[in-house]
Design brief:
Elements lengths: L2 H13 L3 H8 L14 H7 L2 H23 L1 H12 L10 H17 L12 H11 L1 H18 L2 H19 L3 H17 L1 H9 L12
Helix pairs in contact: 1-4, 1-6, 2-3, 2-4, 3-4, 4-6, 4-7, 6-10, 7-8, 7-10, 8-9, 9-10
Bound molecules: (2R)-2-hydroxy-3-(phosphonooxy)propyl hexadecanoate.
Length: 217
Amino acid sequence: MWFPYLLLAIAYLLGSFPTGYLVGRMAGIDIRELGSGSTGATNVWRNVGKLAGITVFVTDFAKGAIAIYMMQSANYLQALLASTFGYTQTTITNNLSLFVIGAGMLALIGHSRPVWLGFKGGKSVATGVGILCMLNWIAAIAAFSIWLATMAIWRTVSISSIAAAAAAPVLMWTLQGDIIYSSFVTVGCIFIIWLHRSNIERILNGTEFSFKTESKP
Ligand code: NKO
């Protein structure tokens, strides 16, 4: 039963792929030295531009979605590998959902703590929505709607991300209800909010970057 463990390692590697850093490098900057210092879509949008920010969002979203999809398809992938190399596979049965949430958590950790960048990455919001989308797309759309609505009011990405991350567990527990997946989304969202602690400090000081005032973080 080594196969799902290999997929767990791949989930971390996927999450740690440093999209924001690489897009920044292509624009000739080190994104970690500008704005909030995060390698996320927002900081790239702020310091490189709209298209670069959208590219980072889409790629980081895909990292989360693929990590989950890959583990959900573990038995299929394993069968494919087994038939190619001619060995006997052990089917992953009742604990597959634990591997799925493991892959999700490792993708989140990989994104915010990438080994390639001295463990300093992004805030796992885009990767988190990618994951949520694969677990329950209705909850993901509802969380995204909350993100948009709060963005329309305050025009501050961190406030919207924190609000959406606070709502996502409630949405999962009510719309989906599966104990394993809902517990994971709860833990994942607490992790995402914890990653925003410097933003929370700036929100309280009144110095957080807002797309309304163009104030610097
Ligand atoms: O640079 O510290 P910064 O101001 O960049 O960045 C703060 C920001 C970091 O996040 C990002 C990603 C931007 C994503 C935009 C669209 C997100 C829509 C969705 C929300 C739902 C989140 C729920 C997570 C569930 C696991 O915050």
